[in-house]
């Protein structure tokens, strides 16, 4: 376990998304050059033989497809995350962990225990038997796990084990799928926490922001998470497209369709699985908080939500007769 640094200077833990690559602007400029040239070429082809016309049309279609495939690939592969900040900047001890996602991909995280050294010394042997609630935190698209550092102090003081997940898309390798594949990272994190002796597997919550919120809602379907918080989730893939497509192409329905088609084909996903309405429809009776106006410096609503839905479950278990199996599962 790493120890917190002494006399830690204040760092602003909110990490801005890595600067967007300049390819989007270059692609838009290239499109502005290619489109008139293609139009002039097609006008000449029309006056040619049918075979030449078909060959030219096929070449134009292939060129446009390659342009959009490159555009999608570049905009879904953000720069590798910079881990220059970690929970020690908040004077918290933590363990760097690596675990397997639900689909086998290796995922990194920062695991912060609910009790620090002083808490263990104060509680003595009771600390060894205590099982605490836990929260799994998933960052937004283009950010990394350091995005949550401003939240960890109040959540830690509220008594939660915290796992800050570094999603596969932030590692600089796998492509960004806006929660569709990243949900497997959270499912793997949930399974890992359930194996920890000091974590109460019945009181694990999922928290995500932006695309991480969609990942949390999607992961809840394949886990027994007790509660989910979705901060500023994406309504659908069009919202993600609007933030990444060059403005010159944004108004074209055909361009948006090509972006969407290439994205689904490249990552073998279905955009309908990330639509917010569909994700909320399958949550059943699980408590879910959706906050579209969440501020990263305000944790009061989040803490209050989990106090009601996770800490309250422990109160029921503590005071219910042990012989009543239904009360134990409440």
Which properties best describe this structure?
alpha/beta; disordered C terminus
Structure description:
Helix content is 46%, strand content 14%. The protein is of the alpha/beta class. The longest helix has 26 residues, at 50-75. The radius of gyration is 24 Å and the shape is elongated. The relative contact order is 0.12. Mean pLDDT is 77; it is low at 5-19 and 315-330.
Explain briefly what this protein structure is.
The protein has 330 residues and is of the alpha/beta class.
SSE arrangement, N to C: HHEEHHEHEHEHEHHHHEHH
Structural class: alpha/beta
Number of helices: 13
Estimated radius of gyration: 24 Å
The helix content is: 40-55%
Strand content: 5-15%
User: In one word, what is the shape?
Assistant: elongated
The biggest beta sheet is recorded as: 7 strands, mixed
**Which whole number gives the mean pLDDT?**
77
The CA-CA distance between the termini, in Å, is: 34 Å
Layout of secondary structure:
Elements: H1 23-46, H2 50-75, E1 95-100, E2 106-112, H3 117-123, H4 126-129, E3 132-138, H5 149-157, E4 161-166, H6 182-194, E5 199-209, H7 211-220, E6 227-231, H8 237-244, H9 247-250, H10 253-267, H11 276-281, E7 288-291, H12 300-319, H13 325-329
Parallel strand pairs: 3-4, 3-5, 5-6, 6-7
Antiparallel strand pairs: 1-2, 2-4
């Amino acid at each position: 376990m790493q120890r917190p640094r002494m006399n830690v200077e204040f760092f602003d833990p909110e990490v801005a998304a890595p600067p967007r690559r300049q390819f989007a602007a270059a692609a838009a400029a290239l499109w502005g050059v290619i489109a008139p040239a293609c139009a002039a070429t097609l006008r000449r082809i029309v006056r040619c033989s049918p075979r030449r016309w078909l060959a030219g049309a096929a070449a134009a279609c292939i060129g446009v497809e390659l342009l959009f495939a490159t555009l999608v690939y570049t905009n879904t592969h953000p720069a590798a995350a910079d881990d220059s900040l970690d929970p020690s900047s908040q004077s918290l001890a933590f363990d760097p962990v690596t675990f397997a996602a639900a689909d086998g991909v290796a995922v990194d995280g920062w695991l912060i225990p609910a009790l620090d050294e002083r808490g263990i010394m104060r509680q003595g042997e009771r600390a060894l038997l205590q099982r605490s609630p836990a929260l799994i935190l998933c960052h937004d698209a283009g950010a990394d796990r350091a995005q949550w550092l401003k939240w960890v102090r109040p959540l830690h003081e509220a008594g939660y084990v915290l796992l800050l997940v570094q999603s596969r898309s932030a590692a600089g390798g796998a492509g960004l799928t806006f929660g569709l594949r990243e949900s497997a990272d959270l499912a793997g994190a949930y399974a890992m926490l359930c194996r920890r002796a000091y974590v109460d597997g019945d009181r694990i919550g999922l928290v995500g922001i932006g695309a991480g919120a969609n990942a949390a809602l999607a992961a809840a379907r394949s886990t027994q998470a007790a509660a989910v918080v979705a901060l500023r989730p994406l309504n659908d893939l069009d919202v993600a497209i609007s933030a990444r497509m060059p403005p010159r192409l944004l108004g074209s329905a055909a361009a948006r369709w090509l972006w969407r088609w290439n994205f689904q084909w490249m990552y073998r996903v279905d955009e309908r699985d990330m639509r917010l309405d569909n994700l909320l429809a399958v949550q059943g009776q699980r408590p879910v908080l959706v906050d579209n106006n969440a501020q990263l410096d305000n944790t009061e609503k989040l803490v209050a939500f989990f106090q009601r839905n996770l800490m309250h479950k422990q109160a029921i278990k503590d005071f219910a007769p042990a012989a009543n199996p239904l009360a134990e599962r409440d």
